[in-house]
Amino acid sequence: MADLKLTYFDFHGGRGEPARLALSIGGIAFEDDRLSYSDWECRKPDTPFGALPLLERDGQILAQSNAINRYLGRLTDLYPSDLWQAALCDETMEAVEDINSMIVATFFLPEEEKKAQRKALVAGPLSFYLKRLERRLEERGGQYFAAERLSVADLKVFVLIRHLKSGALDHVPTDLVDRIAPVLAQHCERIKNEPGVKAYYARHGAAG
Ligand SMILES: N[C@@H](CCC(=O)N[C@@H](CS)C(=O)NCC(=O)O)C(=O)O
To answer: Ramachandran region of residue 131, left (φ > 0), alpha (ψ -120 to 50) or beta?
Structure first.
């Protein structure tokens, strides 16, 4: 088995979390390299695109969260082998990336501007994407985003929805998902209760 190291920030969420979950569910040993923001400033210049997460495999580096998710999904049987189902899994992960990019763009704004932009996101594209993600899930049976079984797409959506519901994002109502996309909220609960996901958070002493 190759030597694997996953590098990401030291919190239970974000673009690196689906990869940590996939490795854990797949029972694959890896070095869980968690950086503080001050460590990151020193390491950033030497990374391929100046961003995390990174997966190191036998000394070689892979960047871009969804490339990492696909690779680890294949390694852990959490990525569909059927080409069409794989493409549906990708579609979901890219849609989540669209949402992530919109949210991240508000992180470092002055308070008043952040408030205005987040309210506009909630009223517009964020709600639109959540409803459309829900519709895609329903079209595929309402349980999983691809191949009618757990995949890295479900893990990525779970991490996003949990974040939106957590209250960590000022001006994004914690009941937004429950109100406008209840099937996504149910999906989030279901994935949280997947045995591998539960076991991961229990090991890390986190609520999940
Ligand atoms: N397209 C990239 C985006 C990566 C990205 O923006 N990562 C953020 C954390 S989620 C980051 O490294 N931020 C710190 C920085 O840009 O210095 C991916 O999906 O991996």
So the answer is: alpha
